[in-house]
Amino acid sequence: MNVYDEVAKTNKKLIFKEPFYGLMLIGMKKELSNSIETACVTKDNINLKLVVNPEFFAGLKDQTKLCVMKHEMLHIAFFHLMNFKRFPNKKLANIAMDLEINQYIDQSWKEDDWMGLEINKAPFDQLNLEPKKGSKYYYDRIQQEMDQNPEGDFAQAMEGMGDGDSHSLWEVLSELSEAEKKLIQKQIDHQMKEVAKNMKEGKNPGNIPGELKDYIDGLFEEKDPIMDWKAYLRRFNSSSTKVYTKKTRKKYNKRFPGNPALKIKPKKSTLVAIDTSASVSNDELLEFFSEIYHIWKSGTEVTVIECDTRIQHIWEYKGEKKEIKVHGRGGTSFEPVFKYVKEHTKKFHNLIYFTDGEAWVPETKIYQPTLWVHSSRCRINEDLPGAKVQIK
Prior knowledge:
By secondary structure, the protein is of the alpha/beta class. It contains 14 helices and 10 strands. The protein has 2 domains: about 5-220, no CATH class; about 230-390, Rossmann fold.
């Protein structure tokens, strides 16, 4: 059996023992490399991948392989890759993060070839560290001890621990822009949310780990809208293309006394355009549909128009909160939507365009009020005509 098969076999075992972490791992790219001494997770474009030293992994016992796999998934779940840059002493950060997550690995898995750092083993046992504290707590306590006793036994033991090579690939994350880091974090959140959703729906039975439950539950909470959509739409939808009648006895019927009167109720109508080009990520689309839900909830009819370089799909939004698949994923052009609005002037009285803003300003002129809603990861394109807001 080759090392790739060994990794896959261990992944399957982890799914049975720790479904949440096993499912996180199964959707991740794996790579064998001698560039690191043990194993490490690092970036792969806007996603993450697992890198494993084949000789190191092949020499481990089966239970220890489980330890290593869960250890790497814990680094992701505890946001260590994103927080690594905040610690000036990278070697000490490696140690503190390992001390934190190794407490969440079952002791029965840790055979004699498990070399993970533990708060109750030398040299850390002499510090009386509190269990299950954050990596910053362990970082600060170790730094304090070394500052107070630079020549002590603990400081000497720390010198012999090496430079934390297993996390050397994390350095590339420090060079990323804040927008790129935020995008990677959203991908992590999306992955954890999808795993939790599968488990809740019974597709892969198991419990969400207690250490992550509060955070994951927060991912499912409905986010507040970025603006008061009801007030915004009231300004631009004073007229309407549809009028509904409703019978009511609260109003006197002058023509037919004793019968219910008719209550005339205008229905607002809004055109919502979605940029479905390849530059818009799935997480950005989730942001868009979260806001579209609030627009619909404000009491307006919502017509969705999906467009990349051409109009791909037009449909009526009815408050769907399930997963929605969009059409397109090509280049970007705002022109087709603006031409469509101009051709249907009497039907729509305003346009709300969800986008990352990465396209040329449309040449077609329209007279409907236009609001450009930019995704959280991008910069607002100030050249676009009309009002502009950004999802935070």
